[in-house]
Amino acid sequence: MPQYALKIGYIPDVNYSGFNHQLHDTTNIFTLVCKALTQSRLLQSKDNVTFASRTDRGVGALYQVISLDSGHSPIIPEINSYLPTGIRVLGQTIVADDFHPRKNAFLRTYSYFLVISDKFDLEKLETSFNLIQGTHNFQNFAKTDSKKPKNPIKTVVETSILKQSENILQLRISSQSFLWQQVRRIIGHLIEVATTDLPVSTTESLFEDQYSGPKPPCAPPEGLILENIGYNDISFNHDLKSIKNFQNFLTENANFYQGQLTVTNFFLESLPQ
Predict the structure, then answer these.
(1) 224 near 53, Cβ under 8 Å?
(2) CA distance 206 to 216
């Protein structure tokens, strides 16, 4: 029986409880995808489905990957017909029998879209972000799971800052793997460094085993996107119609929030000074 890999995208939405193995949770994105695969007659048991990366409630993804064994070739529009419009299968491909979307990934890239103000010290932010690069003990940047302890030593191979507009920065970070909440706590730390008198040297202190201070707070999840996952020798066949439908949905979403922003700005400008 062939094994298929599916590429999935989903918008940041706190109405979904995240993407993880909580199959009893009907608001879990993985649960909704498995349900759609079952309705499409592709899946007999959820135990046969594996995925690349866990994401928290409110975190979006442009590139999530699952794999499953099936006697039927996936028809992407059919699967999407059973999914909410904010969750889309974008592509599929046949993979080797020993492929595992989590274990075979050699790189994961997240982007966080940060709204800044005049209070942000961008030089401190950039300096601190650069210190995140390299191999470090990230235990103080993660939420620990006593039932499933993870090796806290991780190697961050890229940190970069892209300016999207006058007040929005895209903070990009890449590593083979991340700890639970690692990216959001890194961003939370950068916000503290950039907006308070917390020194940049605190970043290096957080890597030390003897550090006894508080862990950095988590940045809000809605700004975080699982942007890309790197695999060797895998190329997805994208369904252009499904991608176009997803683009139309995103455009409608953007127009709605642009309207909300316009109303908010009107209130701000109209209040008595």
Answers:
(1) no
(2) 9
**Residue 46 DSSP code:** G
Instruction: For the full predicted model, state whether its pTM sits above 0.85.
Output: yes
The residue range of the domain holding 209 is 107-226
CB neighbour list of residue 210: distance below 8 Å, 6 or more residues apart: none
Phi, psi of 45 (to 5 degrees): -145, 135
Q: Which residues contact 36 (CB under 8 A, 6 or more apart)?
A: 79, 80, 82, 83
Q: Check whether residue 37 and residue 66 sit in a common domain.
A: yes
Token pair, residue 120, equals: 């942000």
The Cα–Cα gap between 186 and 219 comes to: 8
Q: Is the domain of 154 the same as that of 208? A: yes
Residues 81 and 152 in one domain: no
Domain containing residue 23: CATH number? 3.30.70.580
User: In this model, does residue 209 exceed pLDDT 90?
Assistant: no
CA dihedral 134, 138, 142, 146 (to 10 degrees): 140
CATH of the domain at 184: 3.30.70.660
Q: Same domain, yes or no, for 163 and 250?
A: no
Structural domain contains residue 272: no
Cα 165 versus chain centre, distance:
21
Picking from 179, 184, 182, the residue whose alpha carbon sits closest to that of residue 151 is: 179
Domain-located, residue 47: yes
Is residue 195 in a domain?
yes
Instruction: Specify the DSSP class assigned to residue 47.
Output: G
140-167 tens-digit pLDDT: 999 887 777 789 999 999 999 999 988 9
Residue type, 72: H
The single residue listed with the structure tokens 């683009």 is 247
Q: Give residue 1's pLDDT.
A: 82
Is the Cβ–Cβ distance between 46 and 34 less than 8 Å? yes
